[in-house]
């Protein structure tokens, strides 16, 4: 079966690869989340928050109105966060601390339009209470001073206006006295008398208003006070610890997920069956799970052995199709390769003598009972069927791989090698003219639904051997039909035109090779 469709361009961000990486490396980001959880809990107990004192103030505003949206209280909070208030509070405490630093140690919150809550931090409980008291007194004093200053400014403005009217009244009195001496007419004197009465009334009104303004706003002064004395905020270690732990957990999970996502895109280590088969140029013929970690490995041992033997039977079936030596080449899982080689040798030992060439450094092969002989590379001529065991990991001596077998089965661990190294393995084996008859994928993703079979060559979907099927004896011969004569063109040279039908050939169908 072959396809003519051109391969589509890979996406810029492969979501399937990211999801697989998140599942395979869940221990990493879960560990980082747990580390953040423990770090947050430890921070809550090892580095507790400083003691805090809270107090509430009643602030009466002269311009307060039902339509006010809280702008007056926002102004009070902004004034509270100034260095002038901080410096006044530190002066009451007799402290030499920097006001800019002290500003960061407290905050104000408008509870309502007239209630202001102060939260102050201190080095100790007593220090927090003293700071809250000094800060509330400094703010109230500053607020009342500003109210009195405003009232005094209003009173002074009224006095100034009264002084100007008093000067006008003096001029009017002088004019009346002059006209009376001169014996002027009555209408002119009546006009001056009316003007004098008007000025006198205005002066009296301004005097009254100036006196009221000088008194200030007694309601504001009387109502602006501390309504809730400073008190310490009780420490809730459990709540603080839970909050810090939750924050640490979220930060740890975010860091872990981000790290796994970025590394999955940058490291480019294929995990899916489809990617591995494409990069190696061979189909995935079987897959094996890695031994689980923890107590579950005790009762899953028999299942692992059964799966490995099943894969060995599959590889043995491939090996029996040809008498040439077959090699198992490891990439990322030497122990699994050694165990699979032992099972394969035991399966093929029923057919005769087996010679196993062990070129897997640092790994000993434990063979089952039977006519199986384990030798080192270069030990001389071998008898019986030959199985080679080696490695194609980085640092492999490629000239020694040819001696392990004329064909090979790659045992590859998913996510172990980068794409560039998979291409290197495929290219080196092609240069050595060693066909890859299949790939055994170790530790695949359980939710991988991609197809690991290559369908690009005739009769090579399940076998890496490149020989074609033999033609069937009943294939019909090819029939050739004569071309249809065509009329000559009109140029007079007698050359045939190309408007007629071209020669036609009928080819015999290619029959699939029968199974023995």
UniProtKB/TrEMBL annotation:
Membrane-topology descriptor = Multi-pass membrane protein
User: Is Iron one of the keywords?
Assistant: no
Q: Where in the cell is it found?
A: Cell membrane
One of the record's GO cellular component terms: plasma membrane
Q: Which UniProt keywords apply?
A: Cell membrane, Membrane, Transmembrane, Transmembrane helix
Record's superkingdom?
Bacteria
Main localization category: membrane
Q: Which family does it belong to?
A: Belongs to the CpsC/CapA family.
Protein known as: Exopolysaccharide biosynthesis protein
């Amino acid at each position: 079966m072959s396809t003519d469709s051109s391969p589509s361009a890979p996406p810029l961000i492969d979501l399937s690869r990211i999801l697989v990486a998140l599942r395979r490396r869940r221990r990493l980001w879960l560990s980082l989340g747990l580390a953040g959880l423990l770090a947050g809990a430890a921070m809550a107990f090892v580095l507790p928050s400083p003691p805090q004192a809270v107090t509430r103030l009643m602030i009466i505003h002269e311009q307060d109105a039902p339509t006010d949206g809280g702008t007056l209280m926002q102004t009070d909070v902004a004034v509270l966060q100034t260095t002038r208030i901080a410096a006044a509070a530190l002066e009451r405490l007799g402290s030499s601390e920097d006001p800019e630093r002290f500003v960061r140690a407290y905050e104000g919150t408008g509870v309502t339009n007239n209630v202001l809550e102060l939260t102050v931090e201190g080095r100790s409980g007593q220090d927090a209470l003293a700071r809250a008291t000094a800060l509330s007194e400094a703010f109230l004093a500053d607020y009342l001073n500003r109210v009195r200053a405003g009232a005094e400014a209003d009173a002074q403005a009224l006095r100034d206006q009264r002084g100007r009217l008093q000067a006008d009244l003096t001029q009017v009195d002088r004019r009346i006295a002059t006209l009376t001496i001169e014996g002027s007419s009555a209408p002119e004197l009546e006009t001056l008398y009316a003007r004098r009465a008007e000025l006198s009334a205005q002066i009296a009104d301004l005097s009254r208003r100036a006196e009221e303004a000088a008194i200030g706003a007694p309601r504001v002064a009387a109502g602006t006070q501390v309504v809730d004395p400073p008190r310490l905020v009780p420490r809730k270690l459990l709540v603080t610890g839970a909050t810090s732990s939750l924050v640490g957990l979220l930060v740890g999970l975010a860091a872990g997920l981000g790290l796994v996502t970025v590394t999955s895109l940058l490291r480019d280590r294929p995990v899916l069956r489809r990617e591995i088969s494409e990069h190696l140029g061979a189909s995935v013929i079987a897959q094996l799970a890695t031994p689980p970690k923890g107590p579950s490995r005790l009762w899953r041992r028999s299942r692992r052995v059964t799966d490995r033997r099943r894969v060995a039977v599959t590889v043995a079936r491939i090996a029996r199709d040809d008498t040439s030596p077959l090699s198992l080449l490891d990439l990322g899982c030497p122990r699994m390769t050694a165990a699979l080689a032992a099972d394969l040798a035991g399966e093929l030992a029923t057919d005769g003598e087996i010679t196993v060439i062990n070129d897997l450094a640092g790994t000993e092969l434990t063979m089952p009972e039977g006519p199986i002989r384990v030798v080192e590379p270069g030990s001389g001529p071998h008898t019986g069927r030959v199985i080679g065991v080696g490695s194609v990991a980085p640092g492999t001596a490629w000239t020694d791989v040819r001696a392990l077998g004329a064909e090979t089965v790659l045992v590859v661990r998913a996510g172990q090698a980068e794409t560039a190294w998979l291409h290197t393995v495929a290219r080196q084996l092609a240069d050595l003219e060693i066909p890859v008859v299949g790939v055994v994928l170790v530790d695949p993703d359980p939710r991988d639904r991609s197809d690991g079979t290559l369908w690009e060559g005739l009769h090579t979907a399940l076998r890496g051997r490149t020989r074609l099927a033999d033609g069937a004896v009943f294939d019909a011969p090819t029939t050739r039909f004569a071309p249809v004569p065509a009329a000559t063109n009109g140029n007079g040279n007698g050359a045939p035109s190309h408007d007629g039908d071209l020669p036609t050939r009928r080819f015999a169908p290619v029959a699939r090779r029968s199974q023995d």
